[in-house]
Amino acid sequence: MMFLRQLRGELKKLFARKRTYIGYVVFLIFEALLLSLWIYVGREQFEDLAKRNFIPVELLSSSLTATYWIMGFSMFLLGSIYFALVAGDIVAKETEDGNMRMVLSRPVSRLRILVLKYCAVIIYTVTFVIFVGLTGYGMALFAMGSEGGLFVWNPEMYILAVYPDRDEAFQRLFTGACFMGLSMCVVTSLGFFFSCLKIKPAAASVMALSVFFIDFVLQNIPFLANHKDVFITFRMANWIYVLQENIPWERIVESYSILMGLCVSLFILGWMVFQSRDFKT
Amino acid sequence: MLKVQNLTKKFAGKDALKGVSFEVDRGEIYGLLGHNGAGKSTTLGIILSMVAAGSGEVFIGDISVRENPQKALRKVGSIFEAPAFYDYMSGWDNLKVLVGLSGRFDRAAAMEVVERVDLSDRIHSKVGAYSHGMRQRLALAQALLPEPEILLLDEPTDGLDPEGIKWFRDFILGLRKERGMTVLFNSHLLSEVEQMCDRVAIIRAGELVYEGAVDELRDDRPGLRLQAKPLRILGEVVSSFGGEKMNGDRWVFPEGTEISDVVRSLIERGAEVNEVTPVRRSLEDVYLEHSSLSKP
Asked: In chain A, at which end, N or C, are there fewer CB atoms within 10 A of the end residue's CB?
């Protein structure tokens, strides 16, 4: 009970800050932009693609397909920046501003302080991804109506799937958004880990993004194509398998076990560093 | 109430504390004096378990801070120089978040403390709009929740205007009178320490070089700022009256010495007397004597 009260306090700190909402505002604008691009440019190209694959066009031009497209494009690149920024701030900013001394002077263990902060950024991450999914869907509904199913096409992950039934399509996409939220927790965990070190908040965010983008670039080098499994960003992209007709649960469980293991390891490493630090004026 | 035993600490291989020990009794206001970098804040950091001691031990009540920091810190409220709050939140929300880390947030108790520190009107305003004095009062409010037995104050009056300093001093003295609050007061404002503390310790370069009651520091012996030439005659006359050099051109004489006799003696021996000003040996003199880095 006390933990929940303290977590509420931590979330209050996070969500009372105006800068926390910058990501939400930017994403809404970006989603509107992507949706416009989809409607005025992308739809035509995809309709061609659907026709060539003998898929009824009406399935393609739906709000759910547009949502899938918006989420896929926006989250990995732009989302990672916001998660790294927020998580990079969560410990380092309080240390830099001197708030941490006020917190540490309270009868509460450092581990508990970190657990509260980590839970807060994880909640932020997952809810943010779901927010992007729901607002993207809302905008698409408004612009394109509720008709049509879902068309999924991702050549890099070898996925091509069609869901004509709207309910099943929505369910699949929502589940995909949840898994995507879990994937993004890795970026958050990276930011959190660096935030526990004795560095500036901006440096923590930059370090987290550097690791993320280096991994992404390496993963896309052609001669490393057979070793994609070792890259974090490839494992993170495994959320998309939820949209495959026959869901490869074994593969998904394997990838998310690795990702969750990585998150826990990053938390423990961050805690070890934080625990050994001296906090002084 | 607070027992600090033989604390040592090194930063980057350099000694920051070299075996600092002192005790603060229940209901006592104890001043810790020293230059910037002398080791006062490090001592406070170790007491609050924010800094790991190289060796030594701190007990709050009978609880070891090293072995059970959370239990020990339940008895402690602390205020830092320039307290850092979440500026984008109201004072009330800041209290809720910080006090909530210690356990349940008691609304009625919090309201009472807020009224006591005279912040009721602005407690729901954002802290970013607070003056330094208001921030310090909010810091005091959070330190008093929930009911500490000892207050650790790290340069709490720095940056306050004279009115704010007086308010703060009266508040702390009032707390001691009403609740028997124990206070460790870390400062380099000598007048504050002199007016508030029962005992004082001076830290120099990580070492405790003086400890004693503030009353003992006040010296009732007559003191003089004395400038006369030639210095040889000055020295001889002062010695003949049993005088001792304090610092600079200040001298102190045994009780009962008449200053007029000293001056007359100087003139009779042909000295040219340029200045004679009676002075009292203050806490500042004691502080400067003990904290001077030029001393071994």
From this structure: N
